Amino acid sequence: MSSEQAATGQTRDTAAGCGQHGVRVFLGAVLHFLDDPGPELDPAAWELFEDGALVVDGEGKVAWAGPAADVPCELRTGATKVDHRGRLIVPGFVDTHLHVSEVDIVASYGEQLLNWLQQYAFPAEAKCADPDYARTVAGIALERMLAAGTTTASVHTSIHTTMVDAFFEQALQRNLRMLSGKVLMDRVTQTPHYLRDPDVQTAEDQTLELIDRWHGKGRLGYSISPRLALTCTEDMLAMVARLHRQQPDLWIQTHGAENPEEIKRVLDIYRAQDSSYRSYIDIYDRFDLLTGKSLFAHCVHIDDTDRVRLAAAGSAVAFCPDSNMFLGSGLFDLDAAWRYGVSVGLGSDIAGGTSYSQLYALNQAYKVVAVRGGRLHALRGFYLATLGGARALSLDRHIGNFTVGKEADFTVLDFAATPTLARRAEIAETFAERLFALMILGDEQAVTATYILGRRVHERQSPAPV
Ligand SMILES: [Zn+2]
To answer: What pTM does this model have?
Structure first.
């Protein structure tokens, strides 16, 4: 047995029969979602196979998921078996919002959003003009995501085409399903001279070139990325809407209603031109930016009218609880968003957020919901971090669960990753209790392995300290 086989417990079922080429059978507890379990935890919305198997075909697609004892003969025979029994196999996590350009400013001290941008984010992003630096941070971000079990993300870069190229190149090399695009920002009074699109036409030309180069290549998708209303002119927002009308298969990502001081400044600027703007989200709405492919990070300070509009448009929100607390932005109302039918995904928002782990984000999300008087059940949390995120990014026909034919991006989680988690999981009486312990006590340490299209791309290096 090779060391790789020893490490992963791989064996091949050599019995003669009706096997298919390149099939792999992953044994372990298998959990995935068919729908949002909702506040009533609808049992039809998820499937759990505690002694389960996930079968991946030679193309890296899900061929079957169910009880290990029931794997069909034609899939079992001749298949490579990978033993993760005792661990939990879930669809790869979806991080709906982070900044690859901010890798190096994680854990920067003491500022709320507007000063954070000036003091930390903009100087860090300026460095991304350098292709070597851009490649370095792109590689770090992707490796950290995979180590945390994140297999898909919606990623902000910088204004530089070098940064977009570096990110997409490395995502393509790893065959990842990723969304990203060049950041657009041109409002002279709100952007530093060293980090600004010279004019809308140049920004559009660069965006079109990048779309041509990357959109639809491998599993990559292009997301038109106006940074936020504050840093964009009206002409830039109008250009984004026009481009999306011309190519509605593109995505749009931006920020909205994150921080009270930011919101006041945005409304002051836009109302100086047109006093009828009702809210921050209304600005995007009036520029035709609320589409079924639009993603708005944060939306901490929105009202029911905004929620109705977001839901009606099919636009999604990236809920970034760690960032919202780290930058002192506020507490997103997850229950209200869900009540109004707004599609919500979970985001790390590196580097306003401090962890690449979606388990850690769920820990923070639970606390935000709790402070607002609600509860986030582990099942709904894991839905949020997997299929919920895939839906928020309009990628759920490709990823997000283990229905047959989906791309087999998944992660394997260890209930005994740390002594505290191991003890809590050991005394838990139900699966839901163990899952909640993982959601609250887990982070990237709990990730045993991450697989892309059925191939292992990350394995925890050191044994669990138990
Ligand atoms: Zn952000």
So the answer is: 0.95
